[in-house]
Amino acid sequence: MSTDVRPAHGAVIVVGGGIKGLTCAAYLAKAGIKTLVLEGTATVGGGARTEEIAPDFRAPVLAHATGPFGGQIIDDLG
What we know:
two-stranded antiparallel ribbon, 29% helix, flat
């Protein structure tokens, strides 16, 4: 069984620009795989993005619920 997980056509489309989709895309790109991220909203980041929740008051959407990145991801992606 081959351990090469590269797609047959050399490119991957990641649907969703949330924190998990962006992390996946970063790993793929770092592995040399051409990667396209598609996001349905105006901004990427999913629960890690910041939005205006009251006039002149911005706060993270769900960053408090998702927790910090694991150390391995930070080490891998820098």
